[in-house]
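Much of our argument rests on the idea that a fold can be written as discrete symbols. The amino acid sequence and the backbone structure tokens for this protein are reproduced below:

___
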Amino acid sequence: MNLVQEKLNVNVKKRANLFNWRGQFTPEFVEYIIESFNCTKDSIILDPFAGSGTVLIESAIKGIPSVGFEINPAAFQMANFYKYSNLELKERQEFVLNLESKLSSVLSGFNGHPLFIDTNDYRSAYKSLIDFAKHLKRICAQNELSFFMNVLFASEKDKKLTLIDSILKSFAYFRNALYGLPYTKCDIQVYHKDARQVDSLYKNQINLIITSPPYINVFNYHQNYRAVTESFDYNIFKVAHSEFGSNRKNRGNRLLTVIQYCIDMEESLFSLWNSLKEDGKLVMVVSRESNVRKTPFFNGEIVLELINEMNCFIIIDKSERAFKAYEKWIDDLNKLTSKGEKRIEEMTTLLNAYKDYLVVELITNRGSPFIKRQKGQLKLDNSVLEEFLTFLVHPDIIKNLPDAIETGSQTAFMSLSFRPTNIVSLNNKPEIVLKQKDFPMKKEVFMMRYKKQHESFPISSEVIKMFVKEIQHFINATWYDPDEALQRGSFT
């Protein structure tokens, strides 16, 4: 399986998740995985640890049926929201009108109520929200539950607003989100069940599993939106003891937390194995390391060892995402306050550190043979350099920089011509020819460094300054004068 590192890292993020939930998949990442496995409209995609449902909505966008299992009630209701994708526009409009009517009937009794009071007891702090949730629950139909609960989840953070102002704001957000969901006829199923129960419902039926299992000493997800979930009669303590790797389990002996995690994961892996078709595939994103009382445990290695011991799955590829290092690099570049050559030198230092991590550690030491063979545009460190160059187009580096200038991947205009070029040849098939060209650097050769895979030979800031000089030349030049163009009869 040949997965492109840049796609795994999701270096360019254009879409955001709908919900506020820890550990969500990036939409572009799930989209890339689905495309890589060539799923058809007859396939079924499963996420047994569905979280807020990113795999489900990305499958829906592709028109592929999907299934999600999620034990946490808040995450389950988030994922369940995507089932509204099956509603046509008229159905959505009627649905929203009914929701608005019910909301108004309950809100009228909460004029002047604060949403939050600053006190240590969360039930007292969110008393108004809890009371409102209980009133709403009494008149809420089953198919409306996901919408209203997500409105309440979103309002939990509005501690300075009145209850009515917060609820109306959250309602507007999810009303727009509902209308914005892609329409699909494909089936979307979400179960408030444990991942170990998958094969009891989908034995030998799943084509592709995309998931990220919990890790050891995991954050207590059951505490998320607790005030609301308890108002809808969910047993939070039962959920807490069902969570894989929860740090709430075995507090008296944390070693038992690790042992129980291994047992839970093995049982879930067997369930996933039994749910897959004969040619089915499993893609797991596993965190590298957890700490239990300052002792490191390597989640990925544990899961890999369990898979090897089971002797069921065949491992066809292992890749490692570098998104944390990437995000830190971008963040460090954006935090720079220096100007001119000083800024260029600091940027170059950050570039060298990031490239050495990718080239030496991630690719050379741990990369797959496919990644190591890449050349040219597919080569990851070349992509890093291309992105770095856009950060040079900055007012603290380039003088007289236009306000509306855009950086990043762009199509460069070179020339426009028309064929035929004269009236005599008009009987020929007419066409417009548009020439496009990459950013030209004349004929100079820029030697970046002698040995790309060795930190002793970093990219020189002097070389980067030469790039800046070329960029400044382009900014200062007058490339198009309309009067001259009219006299010449062309744009070039």
In short: Residues 5-310 form a domain with the Rossmann fold fold (CATH 3.40.50.150). The radius of gyration is 28 Å.
